[in-house]
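Technical annex, item 7. During the second reporting period the consortium partners agreed on a shared format for inverse folding records so that results from different sites could be compared directly. Each record opens with the tokenized structure and is followed by the designed sequence. A conforming record, contributed by the partner at site C, is shown below for reference.
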């Protein structure tokens, strides 16, 4: 099988694509892959580092900068014609899109050449590019059940879940003691996305001070660029551990009792896969406020809690964490509801559908 994949801009788009590629590789040892992404965003480093054939195209998201947008119209057209050439040369059986504006010229070129196409939507709020492309692709897969009806003009829409969740089940386990904590005590992880957040960090110093007398322990991840500033003149209790970053966070989430986190698509899928109760602090700085809607998919099913950033303070969070960990019945109901919401065979579902498409 020959596959072209496009996804870009954020890990929320890129890692589901990689999960599906891993599943395809296991089932087809002769799989040939061409990944088309941007020249300057994170996929341009992540994908080549994994030994995957990569081509970068110059394209940018539209903004309110008129001069930049006029230039981008030209770049979109140029990228489209480059993709036509790439697809004619590579001759893929199918083209897979996992979101991000870079997918637009790739899937439009595939449609022009009558190549089978697939689209995956990770968030509960549909991305603009995916919404536009969905009218012409052969199959759309969604991460949330409630998103099934948001592609009214698509040929076929299926509920697959998010393939990223499966990685949390198979990744290398990290014990609490591996990060200097007690394996026997409950653990709360607090993390504001992979880069951290200065606004959240400042608000939650009070949470850490209050937590030093609690019977649970806290791992607080500041983000690499915020660690030194956060730690200046600050001392916490022995049950508090502060790190700038933790590689393979999902490995420690397997031994965690509660996570306080943003509500990005990949994180959501890991929480669902692990049945891990969470308190969400959605990022207010994302397109369409989609993290709030992602969180609501879990909150409205009584499987998690949410506090928006403008209402966040250390005391409020401390009370939410303490109340949840002390309410065994409420905690177990959350875990059960998470189990009912999650899908742990997303890659398998998607790969099966892909094979049906190219028969």
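Designed sequence (site C submission):
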């Amino acid at each position: 099988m020959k596959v072209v994949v496009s996804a870009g801009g954020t890990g929320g788009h890129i890692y589901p694509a990689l999960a599906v590629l891993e599943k395809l590789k296991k089932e087809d040892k002769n799989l040939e892959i061409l990944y088309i992404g941007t020249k300057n965003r994170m996929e341009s480093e992540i994908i080549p580092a994994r030994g995957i054939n990569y081509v970068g195209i110059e394209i940018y998201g539209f903004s309110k900068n008129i001069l930049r947008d006029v230039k981008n119209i030209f770049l979109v057209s140029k990228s489209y014609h480059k993709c036509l050439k790439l697809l004619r040369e590579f001759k893929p059986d199918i083209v897979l899109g996992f979101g991000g504006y870079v997918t637009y010229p790739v899937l439009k070129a595939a449609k022009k050449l009558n190549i089978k196409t697939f689209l995956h939507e990770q968030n509960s709020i549909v991305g603009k590019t995916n919404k536009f492309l969905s009218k012409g692709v052969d199959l759309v897969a969604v991460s949330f059940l409630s998103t099934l009806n948001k592609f009214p003009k698509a040929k076929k829409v299926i509920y697959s879940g998010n393939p990223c969740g499966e990685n949390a089940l198979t990744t290398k386990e990290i014990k609490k003691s591996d990060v200097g904590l007690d394996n026997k005590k409950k653990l709360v992880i607090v993390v504001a996305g992979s880069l951290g957040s200065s606004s959240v960090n400042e608000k939650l110093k009070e949470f850490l001070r209050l937590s030093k007398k609690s019977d649970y322990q806290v791992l607080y991840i500041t983000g690499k660029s915020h660690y030194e500033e956060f730690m200046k003149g600050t001392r916490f209790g022995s049950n508090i551990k502060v790190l700038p970053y933790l590689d393979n966070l999902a490995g420690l989430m397997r031994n965690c009792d509660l996570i306080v986190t943003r509500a990005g698509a990949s994180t959501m899928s890991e929480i669902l896969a692990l049945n891990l109760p969470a308190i969400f602090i959605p990022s207010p700085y994302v397109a369409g406020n989609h993290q709030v809607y992602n969180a609501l998919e879990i909150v409205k099913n009584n499987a998690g809690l949410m506090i928006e950033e403008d209402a966040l303070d250390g005391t409020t969070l401390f009370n939410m964490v303490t109340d949840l960990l002390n309410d065994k019945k409420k905690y177990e109901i959350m875990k059960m509801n998470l189990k009912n919401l999650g899908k742990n065979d997303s890659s398998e579902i998607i790969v099966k559908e892909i094979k049906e498409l190219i028969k």
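The mean pLDDT is 92. The first strand starts at residue 2 and ends at 6. All partners now use this format for quarterly exchanges.
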